[in-house]
Amino acid sequence: MHESRVRPAGVAGRRASVTRMSNAFRAGDVDLDPDRARALIDSGEVQLVDVREPGEWDAGRIAGARHVELEQLAAEADSIDREQPVLFYCRVGARSGMAANAFRRAGYDAYSLDGGLLAWDRHGFPLEPEGGRVADH
After folding, report:
1. Do the Cβ atoms of 65 and 56 come closer than 8 Å?
2. Coil, helix or strand for 38?
3. Deepest in the core among 6, 34, 117, 134, taking most CB within 10 A?
4. Which domains does the chain have, with CATH numbers?
């Protein structure tokens, strides 16, 4: 597997160190494991977008995320900064993987949380609001 460092173009003074990995059968170059995703979120190096449905969002989410349902994402694309990497997430990673791949085709530096919010929660990472949970889809 080949690894390379990704640095977002046009972001002065910011050195994002998102790792891309290519794999023919899995979108490994798009997927970020929960540990790496949390580090990037905590450092402010990525925009975080939750593409789940409203009931899922209400049940629990990652702090600092913006909620844009998958069905509304195309209409909201211009409101997402092209100059900063964007990390999408959903419940298990399927919807966010589609979003990340579509945004990459449109020229964004886009990623998906590998395993989605379920993986995030399994790692013991926090959810909002207090007592938040991963809702069924």
Report:
1. no
2. helix
3. 117
4. 3-122 (3.40.250.10)
Q: What is the pLDDT of residues 39-80, one digit of tens each?
A: 999 999 999 999 999 999 999 999 999 999 999 999 999 999
Q: Which of 40, 62, 65, 90 is catalytic?
A: 90
3-state SS of 71-137 is: HHHHHHHHHCCCCCCEEEECCCCHHHHHHHHHHHHCCCCEEEECCHHHHHHHCCCCCECCCCCCCCC
Handedness of CA 121, 123, 126, 131 (dihedral sign): positive
| Confidence (pLDDT) at 137 | 82
Select from 10, 25, 20 the least CA-distant residue to 112.
20
3-state secondary structure of 32: strand
Q: Please confirm, yes or no, whether 90 is among the known catalytic residues.
A: yes
Distance (Å, whole) CA 24 – CA 16: 25
What pLDDT score does 97 carry? 97
